[in-house]
Every structure is written in structure tokens, then in C-alpha cells.
């Protein structure tokens, strides 16, 4: 199965899942997204490869991210995404492009951090409030991401996401510096 076929099947499965989860009819989703009912049917039956604009509209109408709609598989709380599995959603003949590195559903504020860890150093963190999500992308070195006592290796070019309501640590067990980008999403206080 090609990457495009996997994306089409994933989109079909995930749109159907989230539409059902939200209690939306086909007409309700079409109306909320500003697309035709026929387009929603074609997407849910994996008979079309919609534009990114259409996928964004459907994601917004369902209240979920593009990453969630295109996710091949739902995995454990910690998901490491190898660099070669980032999804290229747009490119031009002139060489412009974007890549969806990693994403997660997050209901509250987001923070973006730049990190550098020298060899042999680490930074432990106490658990954050329930529902806090962290996303990271390693640009150099290899991060030892410790979540609830379990070490996950995240090499340069790879990304990860995890629920941060348990103890966690960013550690450099290597001999070269680790550099990474980190986003933290904390849920709304209700």
C-alpha cells in the first residue's frame, strides 16, 4: 500500500470515528466544515484524496488536529516518530515544502521551548497537571526521554509526544550536545 493509500484510509477511518464520537450526522459535519455532503461521504469511503484545505476545514469542524485525522495508528502514551515518517503535506517544484513532524490533541495553552543539553546532563520534571501534553523534535544529538521511569531514545531528526502528568526527564547520555524544540500544552482550568 502506498503512502497516499495509507493516508486516504487513515483519513477515512479517523473522520468516521470523530464524526461518530461528536454525534454529528453527515449533513452536520458537511455544514460545519463548509463542504458538500458528497465530499464527506467520499472521504469516509476512502474514494477521494481531498485538498489540505478541505482536511483543515473538516479537522476544525470536528475540533481535532490534522495530525489526528491523518494518524496511521493510535499508539501508546509515548509515540516516537522517526524523521523519515514525517508526512510531507505540501511541496513546490521550486523546492518549498512543509513536514508535519508530530502533533497531539491539546485543549489548553501551548508553550514552545528551545533546549540544549550538554553531554552527561539532564533536567528532571515533576508531573504536570492531568491532561498536559508535551511534543518535542530533536535537531542534534540523541535525547534520552524518560517518562514514568521508562527510557525512550529520540535521535536527531525524530519527534515524540507524551502525556506529561507523570514524572519525566530530558537526559543526554551521549558525547555530543542535544538540541531540541519542545512544545508544552497545559489544559484549561475550568
Secondary-structure class: alpha+beta
Put simply, the count of helices is 5
As a whole number of angstroms, the C-alpha radius of gyration is 18 Å
Shape: elongated
The largest sheet, given as strand count, sense and whether it forms a barrel, is: 5 strands, antiparallel
| Secondary structure: helix percent | 25-40%
The first-to-last residue Cα distance is: 44 Å
Unreliable stretches (pLDDT < 50, length at least 5) are none
Strand content: 25-35%
Strand segment tally:
11
Strand order in space, largest sheet: 1-9-6-11-4
Overall pLDDT confidence: 84
List SSEs in N-to-C order: HHHHHEEEEEEEEEEE
Oligomer: single chain
Overview of the molecule:
It is a single chain. The protein has 190 residues and is α+β, with helices and mostly antiparallel strands. Helices cover 27% and strands 32% of the residues. The protein contains five helices and eleven strands. It has a five-stranded antiparallel sheet, with no helix packed on it. Strands 5-10-7-8 form a four-stranded antiparallel sheet, with no helix packed on it. Strands 2-3 form a two-stranded antiparallel sheet. Helix 2 (26-33) crosses helix 3 and helix 2 (26-33) crosses helix 4 (52-62). It is elongated and about 55 Å long. The termini are far apart. The model has no long low-confidence stretch (mean pLDDT 84).
Amino acid at each position: 500500500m502506498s503512502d497516499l493509500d495509507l493516508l486516504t484510509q487513515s483519513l477515512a477511518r479517523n473522520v468516521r470515528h470523530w464524526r461518530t464520537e461528536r454525534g454529528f450526522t453527515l449533513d452536520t459535519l458537511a455544514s460545519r466544515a463548509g463542504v458538500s455532503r458528497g465530499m464527506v461521504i467520499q472521504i469516509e469511503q476512502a474514494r477521494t484524496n481531498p485538498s489540505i484545505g478541505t482536511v483543515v476545514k473538516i479537522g476544525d469542524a470536528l475540533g481535532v488536529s490534522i495530525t489526528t485525522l491523518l494518524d496511521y495508528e493510535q499508539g501508546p502514551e509515548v509515540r516516537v516518530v522517526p524523521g523519515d515518517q514525517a508526512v510531507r503535506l505540501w511541496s513546490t517544484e521550486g523546492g518549498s515544502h512543509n513536514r508535519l513532524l508530530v502533533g497531539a490533541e491539546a485543549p489548553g495553552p501551548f508553550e514552545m521551548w528551545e533546549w540544549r543539553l550538554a553531554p552527561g546532563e539532564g533536567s528532571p520534571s515533576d508531573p504536570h497537571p492531568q491532561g498536559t501534553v508535551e511534543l518535542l523534535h530533536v535537531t542534534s544529538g540523541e535525547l534520552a526521554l524518560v517518562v514514568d521511569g521508562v527510557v525512550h531514545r529520540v535521535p536527531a531528526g525524530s519527534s515524540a509526544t507524551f502525556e506529561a502528568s507523570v514524572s519525566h526527564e530530558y537526559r543526554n547520555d551521549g558525547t555530543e550536545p542535544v538540541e531540541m524544540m519542545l512544545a508544552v500544552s497545559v489544559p484549561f482550568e475550568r
